[in-house]
Structures are given as structure tokens and as C-alpha cells.
Specification:
The structure holds 2 protein chains of 2 kinds.
Chain A lengths: L1 H28 L4 H6 L5 H10 L6 H13 L13 H36 L4 H15 L2 H15 L14 H35 L2 H8 L4 H31 L1 H6 L5 H10 L3 H29 L7
Chain B lengths: L1 H16 L4 E6 L15 H10 L4 E4 L2 E7 L2 E6 L5 E6 L4 E2 L9 E2 L2 H12 L13 E7 L2 E6 L5 H4 L14 H7 L13 E7 L3 E6 L12 E6 L3 H10 L4 E3 L4 H8 L4 E16 L9 H10 L2 H8 L4 E3 L14 H6 L8 H10 L6 E8 L2 H15 L3 E8 L1 H9 L5 E6 L4 H9 L22 H8 L4 H18 L2 E14 L2 E2 L19 E2 L1
Classes of the chains: A mainly alpha, B alpha+beta.
Chain lengths: ~325, ~525
């Protein structure tokens, strides 16, 4: 397993290099100028040009490419063209909030989604199944920002149980949980819908397999057949999807971060894109790419825990 | 579950009780850009800068038509108008920073340094405002500014006021902090910087040594909340006290009906002008430009935006600035170009376009630009002018229009003087791409250079205003642009907030928080 993990990590380097190269080229092809974005329209053309020089945008592209790459190899993600803050420092500030939110969303999704999926599968085409499928369809159909607003109106504005905005400090667990509750629930409801449908579908497939019929024919209790024979196999694709979703959520939770005014990696990336902050965007996408690679690796490694027959060749 | 909710509620309550005199303002922004006052241009940055720094003079809080002393307790100008002398207050303390934990007293050395920084294009976005000026410290509390050419007080004082390059940056703090200054500003204002949480907020605390006396508020938090529903929800729950609103009538009316909430609509507002690119056919033909003007109803656009937030603008310079023209004055000259579709069609036919014509233009996705432009699109269609709009993001829009791609440019702007409006938008040196100092002359007009320059160096205020008005009349005759309206600023606040002054207009583009602002 260790050799497999090391090999996967080594393959990650050319992947990240390709990601960096593509991002470097694409962000510069798009119209827009970070100096204009930084200075606003009142600044004179001379001031814009002076800032472009200071930002290092007037040197040849290959020099910019090379300098940034050397920085990455030495662990330096560079400084934001707009705020001049080190990218590493910005990421260090927001990443814990992003990971916390993603993790909470996934946990809620798994805790609620897997049992609901099992219930809807074993009660197929009966009342619990209809209810589960309808609710999960509703959950998947509703955009995160709209669901977030509904939760704010209900639990923050009307009931005043939770705050509307911000992310609580990690030094206070209660403040942190208070601020996390609604955004996590927003992502969690969507994840629950997803996991419910996935679990139901996979479990129904497995329950039709011959080895399940064999287990039943041997006289095993239905619960034993379900939890020890069927569910283990059914969960592999579910875990796989959870891993992919975790990677997607890290970048994709931007609407939730905006609605709840939380700092986060997705919000930073969108902001960098809007302001044509090339250096920040490149650095953030490298971080995001690294996270995706690591999450995929952990997901693959978890298969062996769920199903001992899985071998890492 | 009930116990958990109870604990959370009590926790929330205690959090806010403990911060009773902390004022929270939420802006329509994802994050700050820079808190270096000589670069800060966006509303959310200007707000922080306004609370942290001072100018030599300041616009009276809530009323930008008046100047009053700030860091300088008095000033005088030589009889030839070339030398301005400022006498600084004693006992003005710079906020603490790591290299000076107690702060230090601001002197003329800091003021001269700051003005030189503002005049240097490598350290300021406003360097162009200070060309032809030299700065000298006469003694520790006296500063002289020597001009190459005399300027009237209307043009000179804004350059040393609490706006843009006029904010005074303390020398030792700037040199000690270096590039960190942009996110860790140090000034002399009523509030001092305490913390910046990226993508979330800036926290300021009261400056106990503020020269006008310690502020009534213990601190201010500036929150970055790009979603308006979230901002409004936070205002309703009391988590924030002031929010940046939506500059639309429907929003203003809806929020006005909310209990405990006050909506402030204030000036100076931003001018919304349709620039007609005279270098591109068929706009190059005066008859076509006249047809466009007669095909547009300014009132129709304003009705769509809302009478509370938009006021008619009939000339290049808004009427509340010295040298601005009122709509009545424009009407007297017969240059209002009131809606006349038949005349517009006749003019098009005379220009060789009896069926109209088709043009394309880019516009930003921002509603304050896009909505009026779409309204103009619909109005022009009535006379056969088919305006194809391509919506792009704001940054791309600014780049594209400066590359001179648009035959029509809708532009939203605020400039602090008639000279700035006319120079930046209508002087030949400012023509996009090809001008000597390419800027925002999108119409390629070249005919009013001499009037703009004559007015700039005219010391007689009455004559100066006449020259500015003359230039605007000429621009209207030539139809280099079609002024639409002035869009005011909209903020909503809890009725617990008392600004400490009467809010009519604010150059900081937000309801200023001063030492007298408090929460009831």
C-alpha cells in the first residue's frame, strides 16, 4: 500500500505541472488587467503602467512562468498582485474553514444519506422509498445558495438560533459550531440527497447478486445478509463518490461561502479570477489540485479497508 | 438538542452584548483590495481608509461642499497663488505600530513625505494630480506647497483633503511596514487598524489619542458580504448595523418598510453618461449622434432606475460641483435633446440610414451599468438602431473600452472637480489608445482643450465656472456624450446608529463613521 501511495504521489508532480501551465496560459488569454482591477477607473494610465511594472507583468511571459515555477519548487506560492499578501498566508487563513465546512457537509451527508439509502432500498417501491426519493430529488434540485438563504431566513432571522454571517474562531468551539451549523447543513442536505440515491441504487444492484441469494439460501438472517454481505460491496462506489464530492465541494462551496459570508478557498479563487490576480489564482489552483490528488489517493486507499479483497498492485 | 440550541443562543447573545459599542458595516465586496490610501479606490477600501487617515483639510462630514481644518489648523495662500502654507496641529499622534509601540507625534516631515509619495507614480495611483508641485517643511509644524502655476481653491484644496492622494501617510510607519502597509495601515484617524481576516472582515479599534477626542464607539468592523440577502438578513438580526444597499427604487422602498431600519440615500452620486465614439462610423456623423440623443428619453431611464436614487444629469459636470450645469441652464441653451422620435428618424434618413443601423457594444455584468444600457438599447430600437450588447465581466469591460472597441460606452464615474471630469473625459490628451496620456476620452473629442486649460489656471472663481460651463455647452452641441443621470449611494442602517452629523453627501462613498458616531 505504501509503495502504491508513493507511486501515486510521484505521478502527481507532472499533473500539477500541467495544471500550472494551463492556468498560467488561460488566465493571461482572458481580457482584463490586474493593474486596472487594483487601481479602479480613477487611476491614470501612467499609474496603471507603473503598477503593471511593479507587479512584474511587463517582463516576458517565459520569465514570469519560470520565476513562479521556481517559487513553487521552493515552497513559495508568491504574493497576491492586489493585496500583496503572501498566497501561502492567505491559504493558511482560509483553508481550515474550507476543510471544516467540507468535512461537516460530507459527514452530515454520510450519516443521513447512507441509512436513508438503505431504508429506501429495502423498502423499495413502498411509502418510505417514495418519501426518500422525493426528498432526495428535491435536495438535488435546490441550488446551494437558495437553500442557504432559506435556512438563514428560518433559523437565523426568524428563530435567531444561529448567526447569519462569518466563520467562528477555532479558539472557541461553541462559536465555531454556531457559525458552522447552517452552512454545513446547506451542504449536508445536498450531500444527503446525493448519498441517499447512490446508496439505494448500489444496494439494489448488489441485492440482486447471486452471492446474496446464496447467503439467504444458507439461512442467514436478513440483517446479516444486508449489513455483512451486501452493504460492504455496495458502499465502495458510495465512498468513491463521497471522495469525488469532497474534492468538488472544496472548490464548489463558493456560493455557500458567499451566502454565509465565510472565508474559503473557493471564494478566494473566484475573487482572484474576477480581479485577474494571476499569481493568486495560479497558487490557489495548485493548492486545490494538490488537495484533489490527496483526496483521491485517500479515497482509493479506503477501498482496502471496506473490502479486504482489494489489492494495491 | 434543546440544550445544545440553548447553549448556542446564550453564546450568541453574550457575544453581542460584549461588543455593544462595536459598529459593524457590511459592504458589497468579496474582500479588500488595498488599504494604502494612495491606491484605495473601491468603496469598501475608501471606507476603512477614511476612518484610519486624515488629510490636511477635510470635507465636512456629511457635506462635501464645505472644507474645514483637519491635520492643518489653518492655511494661507500667497498673493500670486503659487505658495500654499499649512500650519499643522500640535499633538497629533500616529497610531502605534511594532517599531513605535506608543506611536509618535506627526510633524511636517510626515506630511511632506506623504505628499511626495502621493505625487510619485510608483507609490500612488493619483500621482497625476500633483504634477507641478513641490513640497517643503518650513519647520516641524509648517508645510509649504509650491505650485508651478496657480490654482483656485476649488481645484487645489481637494488635493490635500481627506480623499485619495490627500490622505497623510506617516513616514516612519510606511517605511517600517513596507509592502505590509497595504493590509496593515497606520494613520492618525479616529480608528486604528487591529486585524484583517481575508475574505471576511477588517477590525478597527478606537484611537484613544485622537486629536478631536476619543471616538464614542469602541471599534468598527468592516465586513465583506457580496450577497445582498445575507447583508439584509444580518441587518435584520442586528449582527451588522449598516449595510451597503442596492441602488434601485424597489429595494429602497422594500427596506424602508422594515421596522427599525433606516435607508440613507445620499450624494454626491456617480454620473451615468453615454459616451458617443466620434471616431467610429456611423457615430462620427453629427446627425446620427443627434438622432441617438432624440431617441433616448432620459426620464424613461430614470423611471426604470428609480426617482429616489437617480437624478437627471444634463451636462458633463454634475450641477453640485463648481462649474456644473443644471438641466434648467441646459434647457435655456436649447440643448436638452428631449425625446422626439420623428426628428430622430428624419436625422437618420438625412445621414443615409433611413432604416437605422446595427452596432455592437460591450457592457459589464454590473447592474448599475447593464440595466440602463439595456434600457437605452430598447429605446434606440424604436428608431431602428439595433444595439447588440455583449455582457462581459467588469475587469474585461474596463480593458475592452480602453482598447476603443465600443461605439457607445456607458460609463459610471465620480470625479472631485469639474476640471477632473472635463480633463479625464473630454481633453484630447485623454483619448483612449491614441491620446498623449490615454485615459477615458471615449468620444475622441478634441474641441474643448483650450477651454479646459484656461479654466484650470483661472483664479477668479466666477470666470472659472463660466469657462467650464462654456466647455460643456460646446460638448453638448457636438454631442460627444449624452449625460443620463446621477446615481446616488444607498445604505441601510439600524435606527440605533447615530452618525453624529447630517448626511447629505460623502466623498468617502459610504456614510462616514467619525469620532461622534455612536450606537444608541
Amino acid at each position: 500500500m505504501v509503495r502504491y501511495a508513493v507511486r501515486r504521489l510521484l505521478v502527481a508532480f507532472p499533473t500539477l505541472l500541467a495544471v500550472y501551465t494551463l492556468v498560467f496560459l488561460f488566465v493571461r488569454v482572458a481580457p482584463g488587467d490586474p493593474a486596472v482591477a487594483a487601481l479602479g477607473d480613477y487611476a491614470s494610465a501612467e499609474a496603471v503602467q507603473a503598477l503593471r511594472e511593479r507587479m512584474g507583468l511587463t517582463v516576458p511571459l517565459w520569465v514570469q512562468y519560470y520565476r513562479t515555477l521556481v517559487g513553487y519548487l521552493t515552497g513559495d506560492l508568491g504574493r497576491s498582485l492586489i493585496t500583496e499578501l503572501p498566497i501561502g498566508q492567505q491559504v493558511a487563513t482560509v483553508l481550515p474553514h474550507t476543510l471544516e465546512l467540507t468535512f461537516a457537509g460530507i459527514v452530515i451527508g454520510a450519516i443521513l444519506g447512507i441509512p436513508t439509502g438503505i431504508l429506501t432500498a429495502i423498502r423499495r417501491n413502498r411509502f418510505p422509498d417514495y418519501i426518500g426519493r422525493t426528498l432526495s430529488l428535491l435536495g438535488l434540485s435546490i441550488p446551494a445558495f437558495y437553500l442557504g438563504i432559506l435556512l438563514i431566513v428560518a433559523f437565523a432571522v426568524r428563530l435567531r438560533w444561529f448567526p447569519v454571517m462569518g466563520a467562528g474562531s477555532f479558539s472557541s468551539i461553541s462559536a465555531n459550531l454556531r457559525h458552522l451549523a447552517l452552512p454545513a447543513l446547506t451542504l449536508g442536505i445536498i450531500m444527503t440527497s446525493f448519498v441517499t440515491r447512490m446508496t439505494r441504487s448500489c444496494l439494489l444492484n448488489v441485492l440482486n447478486e447471486e452471492y446474496v441469494r446464496t447467503a439467504r439460501a444458507k439461512g442467514l438472517r436478513e440483517q446479516t445478509v444486508l449489513y455483512f454481505h451486501a452493504l460492504r460491496n455496495a458502499l465502495i462506489p458510495v465512498v468513491s463518490v463521497l471522495g469525488v464530492q469532497a474534492a468538488v465541494l472544496i472548490g464548489d462551496s463558493v456560493m455557500t461561502e458567499i451566502v454565509f459570508s465565510r472565508p474559503g478557498l473557493g471564494r478566494l479563487m473566484v475573487q482572484a479570477m474576477m480581479q485577474r490576480d494571476y499569481i493568486a489564482l495560479q497558487g490557489l489552483i495548485i493548492i486545490y489540485g494538490t488537495l484533489v490528488i490527496l483526496i483521491n489517493l485517500f479515497t482509493d486507499l479506503s477501498y482496502g479497508i471496506i473490502d479486504p479483497r482489494v489489492r494495491y498492485e | 438538542m434543546r440544550l445544545l440550541v440553548g447553549i448556542l443562543c446564550v453564546g450568541t447573545l453574550l457575544t453581542f452584548v460584549g461588543q455593544a459599542q462595536i459598529l459593524r458595516i457590511a459592504f458589497d465586496a468579496a474582500d479588500l483590495k488595498t488599504l494604502d490610501p494612495h491606491y484605495a479606490a473601491a468603496t469598501m477600501d475608501r471606507a476603512v481608509v477614511d476612518m484610519v487617515f486624515n488629510g490636511l483639510v477635510r470635507y465636512r462630514p456629511g457635506d462635501i461642499t464645505m472644507f474645514e481644518p483637519d491635520l492643518a489648523e489653518s492655511w494661507e495662500v500667497s498673493t500670486d497663488g503659487l505658495t500654499w502654507t499649512f500650519y499643522l496641529r500640535k499633538g497629533v499622534w500616529v497610531h502605534p505600530f511594532p517599531e513605535a509601540p506608543e506611536g509618535y507625534e506627526l510633524t511636517s516631515e510626515d506630511v511632506v513625505f506623504s505628499l511626495q509619495k502621493a505625487a510619485d507614480k510608483d507609490t500612488s495611483a493619483y500621482a497625476g494630480e500633483y504634477v507641478g508641485m513641490t513640497f517643503a517643511a518650513v519647520d516641524s509644524y509648517t508645510v509649504q506647497i509650491i505650485l508651478d502655476k496657480p490654482l483656485s481653491s476649488w481645484l487645489f484644496l481637494p488635493k490635500v483633503a481627506d480623499y485619495a492622494g490627500g490622505f497623510i501617510v506617516p513616514k516612519r510607519a510606511y517605511e517600517a511596514l513596507g509592502s505590509r502597509f497595504a493590509t496593515n495601515p497606520v494613520g492618525t484617524g479616529p480608528f486604528q487598524f487591529a486585524e484583517y481576516v481575508p475574505s471576511q472582515k477588517v477590525r478597527l479599534v478606537r484611537n484613544e489619542k485622537y486629536f478631536r477626542g476619543a471616538p464614542l464607539l469602541a471599534g468598527v468592523e468592516v465586513w465583506y458580504m457580496p450577497d445582498v440577502t445575507a447583508r439584509l438578513s444580518a441587518l435584520v438580526t442586528g449582527e451588522v448595523h449598516i449595510i451597503e444597499g442596492v441602488r434601485e427604487q424597489a429595494w429602497v422602498e422594500a427596506v424602508k418598510r422594515m421596522p427599525g431600519v433606516v435607508v440613507d440615500v445620499f450624494g454626491p452620486g456617480e454620473t451615468e453618461v453615454l459616451h458617443l465614439n466620434m471616431s467610429k462610423d456611423p457615430i462620427s456623423d453629427l446627425r446620427v449622434r443627434q438622432a441617438i440623443a432624440y431617441a433616448i428619453s432620459r426620464e424613461e431611464v430614470i423611471t426604470a432606475i428609480g426617482a429616489d436614487v437617480a437624478e437627471p444629469l444634463c451636462a458633463a459636470v454634475p450641477p453640485y460641483l463648481a462649474g456644473g450645469l443644471t438641466c434648467a441652464e441646459v434647457a435655456e441653451k436649447g440643448l436638452l435633446y428631449e425625446l422626439n422620435l420623428d426628428l430622430a428618424r428624419n436625422l437618420l434618413a438625412a445621414a443615409g440610414y433611413p432604416q437605422g443601423f446595427e452596432i455592437g457594444a460591450y457592457i459589464t455584468e454590473r447592474a448599475s451599468y447593464r440595466k440602463p444600457f439595456e434600457n437605452v438599447q430598447a429605446q434606440l430600437a424604436r428608431v431602428g438602431i439595433r444595439l447588440n450588447i455583449t455582457v462581459v465581466d467588469h475587469s474585461s469591460f474596463h480593458t475592452l473600452i480602453r482598447q476603443d472597441v465600443n461605439p457607445l460606452v456607458h460609463y459610471e464615474a465620480w470625479r472631485p472637480s469639474a476640471d477632473a471630469f472635463l480633463t479625464r473625459f473630454y481633453h484630447s490628451a485623454s483619448i483612449v489608445v491614441t491620446g498623449a496620456k490615454p485615459d477615458t476620452n471615449f468620444s475622441h473629442v478634441t474641441s474643448v482643450d483650450s477651454l479646459i486649460e484656461a479654466a484650470r489656471y483661472e483664479l477668479d472663481a466666477t470666470r472659472q465656472a463660466e469657462l467650464w460651463k462654456e466647455a460643456q455647452v460646446q460638448l453638448l452641441e457636438e454631442l460627444a456624450s449624452y449625460p443620463l443621470y446621477v446615481l446616488k449611494f444607498v445604505f441601510a442602517r439600524s435606527e440605533k446608529v447615530e452618525y453624529g452629523y447630517e448626511l447629505k453627501s460623502s466623498l468617502a462613498l459610504y456614510p462616514q463613521v467619525t469620532e461622534l458616531t455612536r450606537l444608541k
